[in-house]
Design a protein that fits this description.
Elements: H1 3-20, E1 56-66, E2 71-81, E3 88-94, H2 108-111, H3 120-127, E4 137-143, E5 151-154, E6 157-166, E7 171-181, E8 194-198, E9 203-208, E10 214-215, E11 218-219, E12 223-224, E13 240-249, E14 253-256, E15 259-260, H4 263-266, H5 269-278, E16 286-289, H6 291-300, E17 305-315, E18 320-323, E19 327-334, E20 339-346, H7 353-372, E21 380-385, E22 390-393, E23 396-399, H8 411-426, H9 443-460, H10 473-476, H11 495-518, H12 520-533, H13 541-552, H14 557-565, E24 572-584, E25 617-621, H15 638-645, E26 649-657, E27 665-671, E28 676-681, E29 692-699, E30 703-708, E31 723-724, H16 727-739
C-alpha cells in the first residue's frame, strides 16, 4: 500500500483510537508459545497426528474379598505393549492404596484445624488418633517365567526394572501378587473406596476401586506420568482389555466394570430370568434382586464363596462393588448404535428413592451425553449407592444420597442425589473414554463433564438448579491474591476453590462459548468432533483448544487466555452515553456560524444529570472535501447519506473494561414507546483498546435506557454499572418529578 493512502486511512479510521493510548495487555495476542508446538503426534488442528501413539495394558486379574478380616488378596498378569518409539528400561505402576497409610502425604490439615471446639471426627481427619492398617503388601513381582524383578517403591509409585530394554513394538508380561486391608470409609477424608459398615445388621457394602497395581501412562508429552497420588488429583491410565475373576461370599451380589460371563454359576434361575427380561424392558426397570431377598441374605450371612467372572474391552480401569445387602434393578436403553443395560445396586437404606430414581437417572445421562458426543459403546452403565461419595469408573459409579429412616427425602437432597448420579455416569465420556490426564488437568474431565451434566439437567430435570454464568459471579469476585487460574494442577489448588475452579468455571466458560461467543450450532459440531477425535485417546488442553477453533473457524485464543490462563473477570461499565441528531449544513447554511456544543451526558460524573432529559445534541454533517478522497475519482452520494440519517437518533456509547476479561457486549435497548431490542457485539470490539471502547448506534426510535448483559449470560460481576441512566440518576430524576 502506498504511504499516502496508508496515512489517509489511518488518519480517518484510527486517529481517535491512537490518541487514547490504551494500556496494552495483549489480551488478543495468539497463545503462541503458551501451547506446545504442533508435531506429527499432535497436529495444529487439534487432532491426533499421523504418528500419534499410545501405550496399552491388558490385565488378567484374580481377586478375593476376605470378609471376616476385610482384606483383599489379588494377583494379576499385565501384558504391557510398548507402542512408543522409545526403548523402556523400566516400567512405573501406581500403588494407590498406599495413600491411606498414616505416614503418607495427607491433607487433613487442609480441611480441619485445631479450634476451641472440634468434633472427634474432625480430629480423626486431622491427626488420625484411631489408626488402622492400610496400604499394599507386594508379595511378588515377576516376569512371564516367574523370575523375580527388581522393584523400587516410592510412596504411591512402584518402578519395575527390566532385565533388558523393552523396544518399540514389543510387549512384556508382568506378574504381580499383592494384598491390602480394605479401609473403613468413615475414618478418613475423601474416601473414594473401601467399605461402609451398617451396624444395625452388621453387614458391609464394599466399594473396590484403585485396588490393583496398574500401569502409569507413558506418552509423547510427559514421558512417564508418575506424579504421586495425593487424593485430589485423580488418574492417568492406559486402555486395555480386562479378564477379572472376583471371589466373594456366596450371598453377595457383585456390580462391576464389564460383562458378567458366568451368570448361570452365580445367579439363581429366578435372577437369571429377571436379568434376561430386563434386556427387553425399555420403559421401566426390572428388579433382579428384591428387597425381601436382600433382607434374607442380610440375616443368613453365607460362609461359602462364589466367583464372579467379568470381561471388559478397551477400558482404562476396572472397579466393582460387592454386598449381600444389594437390591438390584436394570433397564434396557436403546441408542442408535448400541443397546445397553442401565443398572442400580443399593441397600434397603436407599429405598424408596433409589428404586424410583437411580436407573432413570442413568438412562437420562446416557441418552443426553450420547447425543452430545458419541453413543455409549459399553454393555452396562451402573450406579451403586453408598454414603458421602460421588466417584466414577468405566461402566460403574459410586453415588451418595439416601432418605431418612422414615424414607423421606427433601427436594434439595433428592436433586443432589440425581445430579450426582448423572455427573458420575457422565464421567464415562470424560475421562473414561476421552481420556485426559486428571492429575495434570482435572478441569478437562470435571469441567467438560459438568458442562454436559448441566445440559442433561436442563433437558431432563429443568426444575433442578444447575451451573449458570450468574452462579460463578461470587467466586469470580473473590480475592485476587488467592484466586488461581483454571490451568493449575489439581493438587496445588486450594480446597476452597476446588469445585469452582475445576467444575464450575470451565462449565460457565464453555456455556458462554456455546451460547454467546460461537453459537450453539457451530459449537455442538465442534465439541462432538473433539470427543470423536480423542475417543480412547489421551488429549491435552491444546488439543481441545485447537479442535474447537479448527471446526468453528473462530479465533478463540483471547477466550482461552482470559478464562483459563488468568483470574480476570468480566466487569463492563457503561461510562458515557451521548445522544445526537444530525443537522445538514447544506440545508441550513446559517448552521456554519453556530457553535456546536458537546453536551456531556456522562453517566453520573461531575454532577451531570446522567440521563436523556436534556434532549439530543445537534451535530452538523458537512460536505466532504475533495482531498479526503485521495486519488479516488469516484464520489459518495452525499444526498443519499444525509437522507438515510435524516431524523435518526445517534447514540455514542462508551464502555470500560473494569474486570480485565474481554467479553462480548450484549446491549438491551428500551425505547420510549416501551419496545425493546437486544444487540450483540462480538468480543473483538475490544481488539484495538482493551480498556475502553466507543461505538455509535443509529436508531429510529428514541431510547429510554440501556442495559448491558440483560440476561446475565457473560458472568459480569457488577450489574450495577451496566445501566444507563444509572440507578442514582433514575432516583434523582424520580425525586425531581415528585417535587415539581
Amino acid at each position: 500500500m502506498r504511504a499516502s493512502i496508508t496515512t489517509l486511512i489511518f488518519s480517518i479510521v484510527f486517529g481517535s483510537l491512537l490518541a487514547q493510548q490504551p494500556k496494552w495487555q495483549g489480551k488478543f495476542e495468539q497463545l503462541g508459545q503458551m501451547l506446545p508446538t504442533p508435531n506429527s503426534y499432535r497436529n495444529g488442528s487439534g487432532a491426533p497426528g499421523v504418528d500419534y501413539w499410545q501405550q496399552r495394558a491388558d490385565y488378567a486379574i484374580q481377586a478375593e474379598i476376605n470378609e471376616p478380616n476385610n482384606t483383599l488378596n489379588g494377583k494379576e498378569t499385565i501384558t504391557y505393549h510398548n507402542n512408543s518409539p522409545d526403548a523402556l528400561r523400566f516400567l512405573w505402576l501406581q500403588l494407590d492404596q498406599n495413600v491411606n497409610k498414616k505416614g503418607n502425604e495427607d491433607f487433613g490439615s487442609a480441611v480441619a484445624r485445631i479450634q476451641d471446639s472440634i468434633s472427634t471426627l474432625a480430629m480423626q481427619y486431622l491427626v488420625r488418633p484411631l489408626d488402622f492398617p492400610a496400604g499394599y503388601t507386594i508379595k511378588s513381582v515377576t516376569d512371564g517365567s516367574g523370575k523375580a524383578l527388581p522393584i523400587t517403591i516410592n510412596n504411591t509409585m512402584m518402578r519395575v526394572d527390566l532385565p533388558q530394554a523393552l523396544q518399540h513394538g514389543e510387549k512384556y508380561p508382568l506378574k504381580v501378587e499383592w494384598s491390602y486391608p480394605i479401609t473403613d470409609r468413615s475414618l478418613f477424608v475423601l474416601s473414594r473406596e473401601g467399605y461402609e459398615h451398617f451396624p444395625a445388621d452388621n453387614n458391609n457394602v464394599y466399594l473396590i476401586a484403585h485396588w490393583f497395581p496398574r500401569m502409569c501412562v507413558y506418552n509423547d508429552t510427559e514421558g512417564w506420568q508418575n506424579k504421586q497420588f495425593q487424593r485430589l488429583g485423580e488418574f492417568a491410565l492406559e486402555f486395555g482389555d480386562y479378564d477379572v475373576t472376583i471371589t466373594v461370599p456366596a450371598d453377595h451380589a457383585v456390580a462391576a466394570t464389564g460383562s458378567l460371563q458366568n451368570a448361570k454359576e452365580v445367579l439363581s434361575a429366578k435372577e437369571q430370568q429377571r436379568l434376561e427380561s430386563a434386556r427387553n424392558s425399555f420403559d421401566k426397570p426390572v428388579v433382579i434382586i428384591t428387597q425381601e431377598e436382600a433382607a434374607q441374605k442380610e440375616k443368613s450371612k453365607s460362609t461359602s464363596k462364589k466367583t464372579w467372572k467379568f470381561q471388559a474391552t478397551n477400558v482404562r480401569d476396572f472397579a466393582f462393588a460387592s454386598s449381600r445387602k444389594f437390591i438390584w434393578d436394570a433397564q434396557a436403553v436403546k441408542l442408535p448404535t448400541n443397546t445397553l443395560l442401565a443398572m442400580s445396586f443399593y441397600p434397603k437404606e436407599g429405598l424408596p428413592v433409589w428404586s424410583e430414581e437411580s436407573t432413570k437417572a442413568v438412562k437420562n445421562a446416557v441418552e443426553v451425553y450420547s447425543d452430545a458426543t458419541f453413543d455409549y459403546p459399553y454393555p452396562v452403565a451402573i450406579s451403586v449407592n453408598t454414603s458421602n461419595i460421588g466417584m466414577e469408573f468405566p461402566m460403574i459409579s459410586f453415588n451418595g444420597g439416601r432418605p431418612s429412616k422414615s424414607g423421606k427425602m427433601s427436594d434439595a437432597s433428592k436433586a443432589s442425589m440425581i445430579t450426582t448420579i448423572i455427573h458420575e455416569v457422565g464421567h464415562n465420556w470424560f475421562p473414561m473414554m476421552v481420556s485426559s490426564d486428571e492429575r495434570q488437568w482435572m478441569w478437562m474431565d470435571e469441567g467438560l463433564n459438568t458442562f454436559l451434566h448441566t445440559r442433561t439437567l436442563m433437558k431432563r430435570y429443568p426444575q433442578y438448579p444447575h451451573t449458570t454464568p450468574e452462579s460463578i459471579v461470587p467466586f469470580m469476585k473473590g480475592d485476587q491474591n488467592t484466586l488461581r487460574p483454571v490451568m493449575t494442577t489439581s493438587d496445588n489448588d486450594l480446597l476452597s476453590q476446588f469445585g469452582n475452579n475445576y467444575y464450575n468455571k470451565p462449565t460457565v466458560a464453555l456455556t458462554i462459548l456455546r451460547e454467546t461467543v460461537v453459537g450453539e450450532q457451530l459449537f455442538d459440531v465442534a465439541f462432538k468432533e473433539y470427543a470423536n477425535r480423542w475417543k480412547y485417546k489421551h488429549p491435552n488442553p491444546a488439543d481441545l483448544f485447537r479442535t474447537l477453533e479448527d471446526v468453528t473457524a473462530v479465533d478463540l485464543d483471547w477466550f482461552w487466555r482470559g478464562w483459563f490462563f488468568t483470574t480476570d473477570k468480566v466487569d463492563v461499565e457503561v461510562d458515557q452515553v451521548k445522544w445526537f441528531k444530525v443537522k445538514n449544513e447544506v440545508d441550513d447554511p446559517e448552521s456554519k456560524s453556530k457553535k456546536i456544543q458537546q453536551g456531556d451526558l456522562t453517566a453520573s460524573k461531575g454532577g451531570n444529570s446522567g440521563d436523556f432529559s436534556n434532549g439530543p445534541q445537534e451535530i452538523t454533517m458537512t460536505s466532504t472535501d475533495g482531498q479526503s478522497y485521495g486519488e479516488f475519482l469516484s464520489r459518495i452520494d452525499e444526498t443519499s447519506v444525509r437522507k438515510k440519517l435524516d431524523g435518526k437518533n445517534l447514540y455514542e456509547v462508551t464502555l470500560n473494561n473494569k474486570g480485565g476479561l474481554v467479553a462480548p457486549v450484549i446491549i438491551e435497548w428500551t425505547y420510549k414507546d416501551g419496545s425493546k431490542e437486544i444487540e450483540r457485539i462480538p468480543a473483538e470490539i475490544w481488539r484495538l483498546n482493551e480498556s475502553q471502547v466507543r461505538k455509535v448506534f443509529v436508531k429510529d426510535k428514541e431510547v429510554a435506557n440501556i442495559v448491558i448483559d440483560p440476561n446475565k449470560e457473560t458472568a459480569d460481576i457488577n450489574t450495577d454499572n451496566n445501566l444507563f441512566p444509572k440507578k442514582e440518576s433514575i432516583s434523582k430524576f424520580e425525586e425531581f418529578k415528585k417535587k415539581n
